[in-house]
Amino acid sequence: MDGNFGLDLDTVIQHVENADTFSIFFPMLRRALVVDMRESPGQGPLVRVMPMARSAADRLRSLKRQRPHLPRPTEVAAIPWATYVENVISFGVWDRLVKRLESSGHKDVVRSANACLQDLRRFERQEIAALIRGNRYETIWARKN
């Protein structure tokens, strides 16, 4: 455990370093960073921000639709990330992901991952702004005057 967020960082890093397919999902943003490290001739790993899936089976189906030329993946590691996007970096997870992507030899996938990180940061800023403004959120109690 780290930072009281319920994260087992050793397990998270193990999945990032070893799983063929994994998803780091951000419940507050209703988005997930989906990584598929499988390759085919002429195509490297996939890194994409996608809407959160309802289940692992839904995520596996979406990966099959995204990459029809590859066999359907048999499993996906689902990693809940209930803290800020920036903590993916500060906890060392992002560094491990980038190193793994670099080792694939596909430089464009690292650029894609960095663009995904920027997207996640933008989604988080939008969500925090909505929270402050009260958009999509309601108080559970009202102040008594």
Characterization of this structure:
- The structure is a single chain.
- The chain has one domain (9-133).
- It is elongated and about 65 Å long.
- The mean pLDDT is 90.
- A hairpin with a 4-residue loop joins strand 1 (21-26) and strand 2 (31-36).
- The chain is an alpha+beta fold and 145 residues long.
- A four-stranded mixed sheet has the order 3-2-1-4, with helices on both faces.
- It is built from five helices and four strands; from the N terminus they run H-E-E-E-H-E-H-H-H.
- It is 44% helix and 15% strand.
What is the percentage of strand-forming residues? 15-25%
Shape: elongated
The count of domains is 1
Q: Low-confidence parts lasting 5 or more residues at pLDDT below 50? A: none
Instruction: Name the helix and strand elements from N-terminus to C-terminus, one letter apiece.
Output: HEEEHEHHH
**Helix-strand category:** alpha+beta
List keywords for this structure.
single chain; 145 residues; alpha+beta; 4-stranded mixed sheet; 5 helices
Question: What does the secondary structure layout of this molecule look like, with pairings?
Answer:
Blueprint: H1 9-18, E1 21-26, E2 31-36, E3 46-51, H2 56-66, E4 77-80, H3 86-90, H4 93-103, H5 107-133
Gist of the model:
This protein has 145 residues and is of the alpha+beta class. The chain contains 5 helices and 4 strands. Strands 3-2-1-4 form a 4-stranded mixed sheet, sandwiched between helices.
